[in-house]
Amino acid sequence: MQEHTAHSPPSSSPSGPRPGGCGSGPELASRRRGNASRSGPMRIAIIGGSTAGLATALRLQLSGHDVSVWERRAGAPTGGLGLLLTPSAGRGIERIGVDIGARAHPIEQCEILEGNGPTILSVPMEAAGVEREVLVDALSSHLQPGTLHSGSSFVDFETDERGHARAALFGDGTRVEADLFIGADGVRSRVRRRHVPGPPLAPVRTVELVGMCRGDRVPESMRGRFFKSIRPGEGIAVGLVPASDNSVIWYVQCDPGRWPQALLAMEERRRWLLSEVRRWPAVVEETICGSDLAGLHLWRTTDRDLPAGFHRTNVLLVGDAAHPLLTFTSQGTGSAIEDALAIGDILDDHGPAGADAMDRALREFARLRRPVLRRRLQMGRRMQREFLRPSRRFMPEVPVCA
Questions:
Q1: Rounded distance between C-alpha atoms, residue 114 and residue 396, angstroms
Q2: More confident residue, 295 or 362
Q3: I need a surface site. Which of 132, 186, 243, 304 has the fewest CB within 10 A?
Q4: Which whole-number Å values give the CA distances from 350 to 31, 139, 164, 181, in the listed order?
Q5: pLDDT tens-digit profile of 173-218?
Q6: What element of type H or E holds 82?
Q7: What percent of the chain has pLDDT over 70?
Q8: How far apart are CA 269 and CA 48, in angstroms?
Q9: Quick one: which of 379, 369, 383 has its CA closest to 306?
Q10: Which residues does 354 contact at the CB level (< 8 Å), separation at least 6?
Q11: Sequence ranges of the domains in the chain
């Protein structure tokens, strides 16, 4: 068995701060002065290395804590091909010292069509499309060397007689000790199942097929535009989002009860999709037919009722592990970034302490986060109900909530 304590090299590592990163500036200097009064940095082990885990690690390293990230996949974390960043999400990423502006595609207009017919909504929009791999790479590259451990599949916690986690146990025999464990392992979180019980996931009522079309350049008609086509009353819609200057992320959103073809085996699903896109606007057909459909991703969208808190003892959940949201809101990534900032602010001056102090800190995290998450949860469910209605009466709205 490999024994580890949650540890990342100190910020005085010979490699020094990265340009444009989190190694300098008055904000960080202020935090370091504030940290001087505590008894020392906490050892924090984060389980899950996608956006929520990486952003949380970066923010906690800004506070001077010893942080390690344990990701089960040996390669880059998956969970979708691209995403839409709201202005608040973009500002949050900048706060942790990461700049992806040059690699994102600014979105300035939202256009919604009724099927293959007229435009039913056209409004200005302030957002940015980005490939998920770009965001994950940017976050990873700003971590202190030795922080991220890949190919480590979480199994369970070793706990003491009071139920506090002493160590995280992994499938390869690795044992990681820490003062605080953070589960950032996604919608179907194993950390949540093993240690932080709460409301179950809601039944899947909508699914998405997600793909990417890559070319020399995004077509002029798509540049700066979020495009969505909806067939009201039929439980199906298609969206297109430029994610860079040469890539477009697309998704087919549907009710699996009325469109069971979305759940077919890969080759049958591909044939159905190529036939179905002929019924949609030309830009949809051209984009999907120009994609590598071998990389098609099936996303079974779900959420869960908000629990009273997001922790038990010294194990905290963040991101989709804590509060999965329906994709109608486009706020999964933004919420994960906000989680990272919130827990970092709370733990800025928090060193190793007793169970009561830890419990108070983690309760404060839930107190801060639940109100905004409740609004997003409710909006996502309302948008899903509207999408699933059999009536052709439809009230279009921008598919991004605050």
A1: 9
A2: 362
A3: 304
A4: 11, 24, 18, 15
A5: 999 999 999 999 999 999 999 999 899 999 999 999 999 999 889 9
A6: strand 82-85
A7: 86
A8: 30
A9: 369
A10: none
A11: 3-80+135-201+303-377, 82-130+202-302+382-388
Only one residue has tokens 């329906």, namely: 326
Convert the pLDDT of each residue in 37-75 to its tens digit. 456 899 999 999 999 999 999 999 999 999 999 999 986
pLDDT for 394? 63
Q: How many CB atoms lie within 10 A of CB 70?
A: 26
Looking at CATH, the fold of the domain delimited by 82-130+202-302+382-388 is given as: D-Amino Acid Oxidase; Chain A, domain 2 (3.30.9)
Residue type, 80: G
User: In terms of DSSP H, where are the helices of 84-200?
Assistant: 87-95, 132-141, 190-195
Pick among 3.50.50.60, 3.40.50.1970, 1.10.3660.10, 1.20.120.1630: CATH of 3-80+135-201+303-377? 3.50.50.60
Expressed in angstroms, the distance from the first to the final Cα of the chain is 46
pLDDT band for position 2 (cuts 50, 70, 90): low
pLDDT at 232 over 60: yes
